[in-house]
Design brief:
The chain is of the alpha/beta class. Helices cover about 40% and strands about 15% of the residues. Helix 5 packs across helix 6.
Length: about 400
């Protein structure tokens, strides 16, 4: 039952309110009427699968929340050779994908096969880091009947879960700057997304729940919890025994790429893979010191960039210079900030610059659109004026011959 339509703080560092429908559950834990299951997903047109995925609200569950149906339609524009299922889960603390692979391997494999069919991809690779032996075993058993599926065991290396780094590790090919992995014939989906596709296609169930890791030294009993979307974060904390000590920072996602939460009253959303309550010891936070030009950020950068130079350009509002140095290739993994002995929040500079560039791009597109509308209106007014002038032109008298 809809209890209210109101504003609730967004799960975003800004804490700004957003329009929200508050639903009061009836406690029955029963599905309402659902779309009919697709009896044989491999006998329908690929567009039918993509449409069902879109109707079910399925997005990338690794955190990016990119619409999964859009990715499934990439097979129309590109020749996709490989569907890469991302089970790397390389960020510390997070284990939700690990648990999902252990307990729902058959469903993940089925969802992957359905997605590969929709993409026209003959090959499926499930990539899992080697520190997840139980997940590897479960996924290997679930995939053994399908010759087109390969379980790839990867070394534990951050940020292996990044789409581009994972593609490089599996195919040996580097994704060109400002290109998609689809340009290499590869589409990447998360393991949780594969399970959600299975649920939507086989049973008509939309994406209404997800598994969330609740962890950190401040949590009394860390757990992985399957929870309904929209559940207040405070209820997850209470379910895990509340706080064992005062948290210094609460983060959604992982400690490297996650974002701080403004408070505990925010709802669980589709991209929320984890809730981490971290102590002062864990975050090791302190004021930034001047850069000592040690080069640690350059050595650690997974994208081969020079973070120190990028930050210098951004501090001087030289966004164009930062772009030339590869700002748009940065995946915001946070490794440079983590190793910096001066505690300079490098990744914050990069995220700020990307946001500023996006704002500039939106403003430019708005200006261009306004210009197009003005030009179109001027042309329309000119046509109307010409038509009126033609209508005012005196008609020739009867019998008069026009030259």
């Amino acid at each position: 039952m809809i209890a209210a339509v109101t504003e609730v703080p967004a799960p975003h560092p800004s804490g700004l309110p957003q329009s929200t429908i508050v639903i009061e559950p009836d406690g029955q834990e029963e599905w309402a009427a659902l779309p009919d299951p697709i009896a044989d997903p491999f006998a329908v047109a690929p567009a039918v699968i993509a449409d069902r995925v879109a109707e079910s609200g399925i997005v990338g569950m690794g955190g990016a929340t990119f619409p999964s149906a859009v990715k499934l339609n990439l097979g129309i524009r590109y020749k996709i050779e490989t569907l890469l299922i991302n089970g790397a889960e390389c960020e510390p603390y997070l284990t939700c994908d690990d648990r999902l692979m252990r307990e729902h391997a058959v469903e993940i494999i089925d969802g992957a096969r359905i997605m590969a069919y929709a993409l026209g991809a003959p090959r499926i690779v499930v990539a899992i880091e080697e520190n997840k032996p139980h997940a590897i075993a479960a996924m290997t058993v679930a995939a053994e009947s399908f010759s087109q599926i390969e379980i790839a065991v990867l070394p534990v290396k951050y940020p292996m879960g990044s789409e581009r780094h994972l593609t490089l590790a599996i195919t040996g090919q580097e994704t060109p700057a400002r290109k998609l992995t689809a340009d290499l014939g590869v589409v990447v989906h998360n393991v949780a997304t594969a399970r959600a596709v299975h649920e939507a296609v086989r049973f008509g169930r939309p994406l209404l729940r997800r598994v969330v890791t609740v962890s950190g030294e401040a949590i009394r009993t860390p757990k992985n919890v399957e929870v309904a979307l929209g559940t207040p974060v405070t209820e997850l904390i209470d379910f895990c025994g509340s706080f064992a000590q005062r948290p210094e920072r609460i983060i959604q996602g992982g400690p490297m790429m996650g974002t701080p939460l403004p408070n505990l009253d925010v709802p669980v959303v589709k991209g929320m893979s984890g809730i981490l309550a971290l102590t002062a010891t864990e975050i090791n936070d302190r004021p930034a010191d001047p850069c000592i030009r040690c080069g640690a950020c350059v050595n650690i950068c997974a994208c081969g960039l020079t973070p120190v130079e990028l930050a210098a350009n951004i501090r001087h509002d030289n966004l164009e210079g930062a772009v030339k140095l590869g700002l748009l290739d940065c995946v915001s993994c946070g490794s440079c900030s983590w190793v910096c002995p001066s505690h300079i929040p490098l990744v914050h500079y990069f995220n700020y610059a990307k946001g500023a560039l996006n704002a500039q791009d939106r403003e430019q597109r708005k200006t261009e659109r306004t210009k197009q509308l003005v030009e179109a209106n001027a042309a329309r007014q000119a046509r109307i004026a010409a038509q009126r002038a033609a209508n005012r032109k005196p008609k020739p008298a009867t019998g008069e011959v026009q030259p």
